[in-house]
Amino acid sequence: MEERNIDFNVHFLGSFSLNFHGKPIVIVKDLKQKRIQMLLILLKAGKEGVSCQNLIEMLEIKGEYFGKKLGNLRSQICKLRKDMDESGFPAGKYLPAVKGRYYFSMDYSVESDTGRMDDLDKQLKSTKVQENRDEQLRELCSIYQGEFLPSLGAEEWAVVENSHYHRIYSKYLKELCQIVQKQKNYSELLRLSTRASRFHPYDGWQELQIECLLAQEKYQEAAEVSRKANEMFEKEFGIVPFRKKAEMPVPAEGKLKLMQLMEEELEESGEISKAYFCSYLHFVDVCRVLGQIARREEKIPLFLLCTLNTDGRFSSRKDNMKEDESENKTKSENEREKRRESPEPIPCLEKQMEKFSDILSGLLRKQDAYTQYSKNQFLALLIVSGEDAIPCLRLRLEKGWKEFEQQEGLEVKLEIEPMDDFAREEVV
Fold first, then answer.
1. Fewer CB within 10 Å, N- or C-terminus of the chain?
2. How many Å apart are CA 12 and CA 237, to the nearest integer?
3. What's the burial of 274, exposed, middle or buried (CB within 10 Å: 0-12/13-18/19+)?
4. Is the pTM for the entire model greater than 0.85?
């Protein structure tokens, strides 16, 4: 690896740290503060910088119109420069604005763990045949030290970044595990899967842990991993995905066989009487777990997106993304800001969404999970046995929507998409 002159080194994964030529810089302020989040965003962006518009949206800067929001953003930048000076940043010009974009610094170079992961991701995507691919995979997986800025788990921009690096890590770790498994290097495979289970306990890496322990004839340890994993999954999701028995079977003829770890059908959960409602962040984890289990069972995971028509006052999360990305606007910026900042009947909508949630929980099955996706949307995860079950499911749900529409006088839009198609756009 070529030598590079790096001034600032930043770690975002697992925990945050910032160093200048090896000397730590301590940001005393709470990371959740808007101006500190702005620093984190600009540090991560590096030489690419971030547009004023994106900063305003990511930080949810308040203002009656765009000019006011821009003024509030500049005020935050001034305060941030003062914070940086008090935190012991070296002398230099920070947070310059060039052609509508803000940068951390033009004077200093920045290297981050996330930037290195992105670089390795690009290299690994360039070709499947590389002499040093194993080393690159190991380096990428070793860089990942856990969630992206875990203390900012409630911030939407951090959620997006966390999901991005989680996907990269999981993708290449699976590839590395396949290579190591072919080599029958069960010690390394156990280390990799144990580490992954620690970072993401609901991703099902315990299955590989158990497989490695069985291959090494460590049956008691395998049983203990299975027991702890079952307890955790049963508490969170009401399912028991791994073998309950204390005694694990001895591999026939000394060869490791794939274990049949699914003990219960997804539909069978006697202690649960209705669909599982959870926060959006928890829903993402639920989708990862149940999606993997469904595919293993050769079932189909679906996303059901339910949108209440509120006369245009509330647009969907997807619609907002598309609107912001569009370059050809049909309305002026002032009109858009006026619409976005207009008084919203929050209490009325909240009551409608509460009623909608109650009806939705009755329509969904007890093995389904759902979350509030935006101000006027619910997103549900549905597991079906096959494609032939989808039309029947749709008819049953549409009947329930019609009843809700008649009761409340609202229009409900129903969309069903395969999890993989929906996930590529945003969610998981």
1. N
2. 29
3. middle
4. no
